Amino acid sequence: HSYSTIAWAASAHKGVIENVDYGYKATTTPGKVFGFFNALGDVAFAYAGHNVVLEIQATIPSTPEKPSKGPMWRGVIVAYIVVALCYFPVGLIGYWMFGNTVEDNILVTLEKPKWLIAMANMFVVIHVIGSYQIYAMPVFDMIETVMVKKLNFKPTTMLRFIVRNIYVAFTMFIAITFPFFGGLLGFFGGFAFAPTTYFLPCIMWLAIYKPRRFSLSWCCNYVCIALGLCLMILSPIGGLRSIILNAKDYDFYS
Predict the structure, then answer these.
(1) pLDDT in tens, 36-61
(2) Has keyword Zinc (predicted)?
(3) Would residue 130 count as lying in a domain?
(4) How many domains would you assign to the chain?
């Protein structure tokens, strides 16, 4: 929340730039369409997180009298409110001040004061250090399960140390090689997070509760499935196009 507050407060303090343009950044119809697809992926990434919900809920004490779904539901509601309070001011105020010249990372657009931008980036690092562990935990668990059950490795501390460090090194290599923030968010938001957030839970709910066909809940879930499937297909296309366009003029490892 700290670096989000710095971003929108500094933008508001800087004021609306001269000759601000609120139109599309792209000038062609395909550019506008694919940019829209990429933006959908960005939003999906921002409100993703259901891939770690079960991991978090598993740590909450649960009894038949006090099931964990109660506190978990309240926690999810609070989490979404906090996310909205962090992201919406940045998006609205940032676009109001800079228009379509705003960068994927608004801190780059601000430029000054450098000490404040450095502080915001420090808060980002602190946030990522904690959140990375949570988001990567299901991946760690999956890799270690395959290594032990399929490849017959012994479940030792050394195996866990090596596997996790290799995964972290791999993700760091990808981040350094393709530092295209907006494109990557759009791609992974649609490809990785849309299924676990927007339509797989609906499929699971339908399979478990089997509501009456064409009832309100049945229709709502199928609408969510259709929208989530479209999001999973279209957003990575927009994100991949953005990455390709940015890579044309980018000097890798410069």
Answers:
(1) 888 888 887 777 666 677 777 777 88
(2) no
(3) no
(4) 1
Q: Residue 37: which region, alpha, beta or left (left: phi > 0; alpha: psi -120 to 50)?
A: alpha
Domain range enclosing 29: 1-112+178-249
CA 222/CA 234 separation, integer angstroms:
18
Whether 83 is covered by a domain: the verdict is yes
Half-sphere exposure of 245 (CA within 13 A, CB side): 16
- Return the sign of the alpha-carbon dihedral for residues 153, 157, 162, 168: positive
**Does residue 187 belong to any structural domain of this protein?**
yes
Of the ranges 80-84, 107-111, 133-137, 164-168, the best mean pLDDT one: 164-168
pLDDT at 49: 65
C-alpha distances out from residue 206 to 4, 49, 69, 195, 220, Å: 37, 21, 18, 15, 11
